[in-house]
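Dear H.,

Thanks for agreeing to be a second pair of eyes. The structure we're designing against is below in token form, covering all 445 positions.
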């Protein structure tokens, strides 16, 4: 087992990883930017090294500085958290070259799933349902013919895109050529790769993702699904497990498909397979995320599995001591992301000082955060300041518990979205589980 791990991230996920390491008796190294000197994760780590200026590009994305810190402190492994370098194959390769374990999949796997066209083809070969569409098409005339065959509306996706970047929806043929050429050139400038493919545009859809955990010996377990359809501009707001919309049969089919996907890719570590769900048991592969997700606590609450600790154990070569038949999804969990933003001003990000903080508690109420009383929330990073997660026997009680916890949360001095979240929980489409990814659009938010 590793003796010392460097956390190449910041904020709440750095705190989360440090806690997991502490429980395992593993020493921790935090790397931080000048703006994060006062941050909680810096004081919680056993050692900490300032690696650069406030901008992520000068610090948290500075691969050489991070690896130098790992070498200088004798860290045997690096945990990337999510975002930042967590799905950067070059960084993983650099770790491997320096003899430092990367807590995650291999650089080949990350690259393979990062190529959305190759990911689609891999899943199709593994028998996972994929959205009707095409492989990469370079020629606009051929693309137009293919779009006709698929049938409008179609969606154009960049091979190197993902998470909402590099996509264009085309409702009718007249718009297609311009949209295809624009999508290709945008992808070329944004990702250095202009290759695009087409899919039938499915609507309305739910975003349902399956959590998998795999060891180095072929062990694969699926830890259930998370419904993440409440999103604003491709940023998730509320996540829950189990999904209120799928039957036990559909859950079994998605579990089988996800297990097949993990085995077909030779996956290692934690991974999330994202699906679009169109109802009546129909689900289609969308993307595979090769990192720990922001919303992982939802799965931890319904399965009792500590995903961060198992990431570390698997990276250290431990064999999973449990199999699929040992996994039980019990009760219901909901996560509300708490963002320093103003719903009354177009969700504009707000920084500021936490003048008064009261964190809700009680049975099965969890608040993953890195803020503390008198902390100044810097303007340089993501606006998420915490995740409120609850667990209860069933969904109705989980909704009630979440509303109680949201009303108990106090963060004075910083404008945040807790009240907006409580309103969403009261929305009839959320309450009856019929909500889709269009919910916020329908609310004009
Ligand atoms: C789609 C789709 C409908 N049909 N693909 C958005 C981000 C990226 N993950 C892909 N996305 C979508 N792809 C087809 N063929 C609808 C979306 C989509 C979406 C998907 C999941 C969660 C939120 C979303 C918000 C808008 C669009």
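And this is the sequence the design step returned. I haven't edited it by hand at all.
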């Amino acid at each position: 087992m590793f003796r010392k791990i460097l956390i190449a991230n910041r904020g709440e996920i750095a705190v989360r990883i440090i806690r997991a390491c502490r429980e395992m008796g593993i020493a921790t190294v935090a790397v931080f930017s000048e703006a994060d000197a006062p941050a909680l994760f810096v004081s919680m780590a056993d050692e900490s090294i300032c690696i650069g200026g406030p901008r992520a590009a000068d610090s948290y994305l500075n691969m050489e500085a991070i690896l130098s810190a790992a070498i200088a402190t004798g860290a045997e492994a690096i945990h990337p958290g999510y975002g930042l370098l967590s799905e950067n194959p070059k960084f993983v390769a650099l770790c491997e070259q320096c003899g430092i374990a990367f807590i995650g999949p291999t650089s080949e796997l990350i690259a393979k799933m990062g190529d959305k066209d190759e990911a689609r083809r891999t899943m199709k070969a593994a028998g996972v349902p994929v959205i009707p569409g095409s492989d990469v098409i370079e020629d606009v005339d051929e693309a137009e013919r293919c779009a006709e065959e698929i049938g409008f509306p179609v969606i154009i996706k960049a091979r190197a895109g993902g998470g909402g970047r590099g996509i264009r929806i085309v409702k009718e043929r007249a718009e297609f050529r311009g949209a295809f050429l624009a999508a290709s050139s945008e992808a070329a400038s944004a990702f250095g790769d202009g290759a695009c493919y087409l899919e039938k545009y499915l609507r309305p859809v739910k975003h349902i993702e399956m959590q998998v955990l795999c060891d180095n010996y072929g062990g694969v377990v699926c830890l259930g699904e998370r419904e993440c359809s409440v999103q604003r501009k491709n940023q998730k707001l509320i996540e829950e497990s189990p999904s209120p919309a799928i039957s036990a049969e559909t859950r079994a089919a998605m579990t089988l498909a996800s297990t097949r996907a993990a085995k077909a890719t030779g996956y290692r570590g934690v991974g999330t397979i994202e699906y679009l769900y169109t109802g009546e048991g129909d689900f289609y592969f969308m993307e595979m995320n090769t990192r720990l997700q922001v919303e992982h606590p939802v799965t931890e609450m319904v399965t009792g599995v500590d995903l961060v600790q198992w990431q570390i154990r698997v990276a250290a070569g431990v064999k999973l001591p449990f199999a699929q038949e040992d996994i039980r999804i019990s009760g219901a969990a909901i996560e509300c992301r708490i963002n320093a933003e103003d719903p009354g001003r177009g969700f504009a990000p707000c920084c500021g000082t936490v003048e008064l903080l009261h964190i809700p508690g009680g049975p099965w109420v969890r608040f993953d955060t890195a803020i503390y009383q008198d902390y100044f929330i810097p303007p340089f990073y993501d606006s998420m300041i915490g995740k409120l997660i609850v667990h209860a026997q069933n969904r109705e009680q989980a909704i009630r518990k979440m509303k109680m916890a949201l009303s108990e949360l106090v963060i004075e001095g910083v404008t945040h979205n807790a009240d907006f979240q409580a309103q969403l929980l009261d929305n009839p489409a959320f309450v009856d589980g019929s909500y889709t990814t269009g919910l916020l659009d329908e609310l004009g938010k």
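Two observations from my side: Residues 4-103 form a domain with the Rossmann fold fold (CATH 3.40.50.20). Residues 86 and 287 are 16 Å apart (CA to CA).

Warmly,
E.
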